[in-house]
């Protein structure tokens, strides 16, 4: 299957221009159409202007409707692709920052152990194979595509070197934006607030506990999220994530199981059960698979590999069988 490249920035710009043109047409249709001879002169000009608007007002109105449809279409497609891309970029930013923070802590522990060994006279401080100091801790990661579109992730740390706050902000030159702020507390609890490109606001509370064994760091995270749409609809998701991070290889595997209750596109209440598995290596290569199952057993399967997305549907998703590629269903 060929790769798909979508310029959602261009789509969003077209949507904005269509909306602007619609307002211009509307303004022309609703403007003053009764002019006096003093304003436009004699010779039937005033009557001609009124006749023009009378004949074309229906076309003006239809043009407004078409431009509104064009705006909605392009904006919907642009926001849909941007939302998916932003979620990937946001998670990638968090993962990159998290990996860097873990790597810094590991390097600092090695350096501190070496310094202690030097102080006790156990090792030669001039050993050419001595570890290097970790340097300054990074607290901000920013990526840009050179066209005014940026992703910025910032970290704040506590005295123990662990993160206390992570903020990810994504903006584009045409005004699409999303933001996510998470606060981490000493007892393992956390809370976050995220706003996506549609204006949906998601608040999350959870508890994350980590245990370490050798090179492996295992984390169990239980969470509850509530999402509110701009028109007042609300859905709730509860779930659990387990992850394993290898500090030697930089590899991270995780599995999330969750249940979401809330209205579907038609406003009908529904319950969806989902499972997401992900694998990320130190080079940033990532594979994410998500399977969601509806109450009737049907569902969807999505696989994202380094930003490339493939989708399937099935009437027997609860049995993990019968998958058909989405474009063929």
Automatic annotation (TrEMBL):
<feature type="compositionally biased region" description="Basic and acidic residues">
    <location>
        <begin position="126"/>
        <end position="139"/>
    </location>
</feature>
<feature type="region of interest" description="Disordered">
    <location>
        <begin position="292"/>
        <end position="329"/>
    </location>
</feature>
<keyword id="KW-0175">Coiled coil</keyword>
<feature type="compositionally biased region" description="Basic and acidic residues">
    <location>
        <begin position="292"/>
        <end position="318"/>
    </location>
</feature>
<feature type="region of interest" description="Disordered">
    <location>
        <begin position="122"/>
        <end position="185"/>
    </location>
</feature>
<feature type="compositionally biased region" description="Low complexity">
    <location>
        <begin position="202"/>
        <end position="211"/>
    </location>
</feature>
<feature type="coiled-coil region">
    <location>
        <begin position="11"/>
        <end position="38"/>
    </location>
</feature>
<feature type="compositionally biased region" description="Low complexity">
    <location>
        <begin position="142"/>
        <end position="182"/>
    </location>
</feature>
<feature type="compositionally biased region" description="Low complexity">
    <location>
        <begin position="221"/>
        <end position="262"/>
    </location>
</feature>
<feature type="region of interest" description="Disordered">
    <location>
        <begin position="201"/>
        <end position="280"/>
    </location>
</feature>
<protein>
    <submittedName>
        <fullName>Uncharacterized protein</fullName>
    </submittedName>
</protein>
